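Subject: Protein record for review, amino acid sequence with backbone structure tokens
Category: Structural biology, sequence-to-fold work with a learned token vocabulary.
Format: Residues in single-letter code; tokens as whole numbers, each standing for a residue.
Body of memo: The sequence and its backbone structure tokens, given next.
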Amino acid sequence: MNTIKILSGINWLLIGVYGAFVVWALLQKANPANDAGGGEQEIALKGISVFMLLVLTGLNWLPLTWTKIVALLLVVLLLLLIYFISTN
């Protein structure tokens, strides 16, 4: 039982970091220098990030161990993707 609590705590911490990135992205203005399709892609990516945040919180609220492991893997992959995009 302690392992599940530790895993859940780590998940909530990482989901909070991802949520901070999502809120930051939502507060940014659309870049007018984008081409014709860039604005719609930006809106779609923001929508997908909000959807993923809801999925992660839902997975972490479920009492099953495998859902917490899946949520941990997803949030780690999303944070690595944000890191890769921001450094390149």
